[in-house]
Amino acid sequence: MGVRLQSHPRSRDIAFAYFHPLSDPFIEPRLREIQREAPLDIQANNILRFGFLEGSARVTGSRVIYDPQSPHAPEAFSENGSAADELALVMNEQEFKAYSKSDDLDAGARDLMESRAANVVVVKRGVFGALVYSSIGAAVEIPIYQSSRVFKIGTGDVFSGVFAHFWAQERRNPIEAADLASRAVAIYCEAPVSPIDAAGLEGREPVRGNPPLAVDIYGAADTLGRRYTLQEALYCLRSLGVDASIAAEALTGAGGRNNAVSLVIADGVSDESLSALNTVLGGIVVLDEEHRPLPPDIDRVRVSDDFASAIYQICMKRP
C-alpha cells in the first residue's frame, strides 16, 4: 500500500483475548508484569498518537490527534513532553471523564480548551453517538450510522484513524471529520478489514433519534449457560448506558415495560413462547445463534445470529 514503516521491538508479546466483542479483554501478561520500554520520539506535521501498555510516545507536531486508550489512568498528552500546534483529543466517555477529572462532559471539555490543553475534543458515547467540542461553536452531536452487523474490536482505532486523516491530513473541520469517522466505523463493523472503502462513506444512513429508554430481555434461564447469556446481555446494555432489565425467564406473552423494546435470546425458548412475541410491546430483536426456523406468524422482528450485533441492534430500535 506504499506505507513506510518504522518498527520498534518490545521485549515480549502482549495478547488480548475477548470472550465476545463487547467483553473486557483478558490481557497476558498481567499489567504489572509488562516491561516498560523507552519512549518513542516522533516529529512530524501530522501525528496520531495512541496510548499503549508497554511505553509511551513523545511527539511533536503541527496537528496531533491523541487517543490515550486507557479508561482508568490516561496519561496527559504533555506529561511526557509531547507538544502540538493544534491538538485534538479523541476518547470514549469513560476515558474522557478520567482524563478531564470531571463527570460533566461540557465542563470538562471547556476547561481543557480554555486552558489550551486541547483545541478539539471528541467524546465517543457508544450508541449515543459522539460529541465534538471546538472553537466553531457549541458542542455538536455526531450520530452513529446503520450497520447490519456490529464487530466492536478495533472500532475505536478506526474512528481515530479516519478522524486523523480528514482533520489533520485533509484539513477538514473537526465536525465533518468526526462525522466521516462515524460513517467509517459502520462500514468496519460490517466488514472488519482495512483500509476502509472511502466510496461507501456517503451512502451510510444515520440512526435517528435517541436509543430506547428501556430494554426488556427475555430468554430461558434453565441452564448455567443460558443464565450467563441473560446476565451478560444485561451487563453489556447497562455498560452502554441503556436501562435494561431481565423481564422473564421465558416468554409468556405478557407485555413488557411501557416505552421498552425487547431483546429475546432464543436459545432454549419454545416455539410457543416465540409466537408470543407479537403481543410484546415495542421493537423486537431476536438473538438466534442456532439459526432455528422462527414461527411463521412472527412479524416486527429483527433476527441476528451474533451477540454483539443483537445488543447494538436493540439499541437502534425505537419503541
Report on this structure.
By secondary structure, the protein is α/β, with parallel strands linked by helices. The protein folds into 2 domains: 19-33 and 88-200, 3-Layer(aba) Sandwich (UDP-N-acetylmuramoyl-L-alanine:D-glutamate ligase), CATH 3.40.1190; 214-315, Rossmann fold (3-Layer(aba) Sandwich). Helices cover 25% and strands 25% of the residues. The protein has 7 helices and 13 strands. The strands form 3 sheets. The protein has a 6-stranded mixed β-sheet. Strands 10-9-11-12-13 form a 5-stranded parallel β-sheet, with helices on one face. α6 links the parallel β11 (260-265) and β12. The N and C termini lie far apart (46 Å).
Salient structural properties:
UDP-N-acetylmuramoyl-L-alanine:D-glutamate ligase; 319 residues; Rossmann fold; 13 strands; single chain; alpha/beta; five-stranded parallel beta sheet
The rounded distance between the terminal residues' Cα atoms is: 46 Å
Task: Give the overall pLDDT as a whole number.
Answer: 90
Structural class: alpha/beta
How many β-strands, per DSSP?
Answer: 13
Give me the CATH fold name of the largest domain.
UDP-N-acetylmuramoyl-L-alanine:D-glutamate ligase
Compute the CA-based radius of gyration. Answer: 22 Å
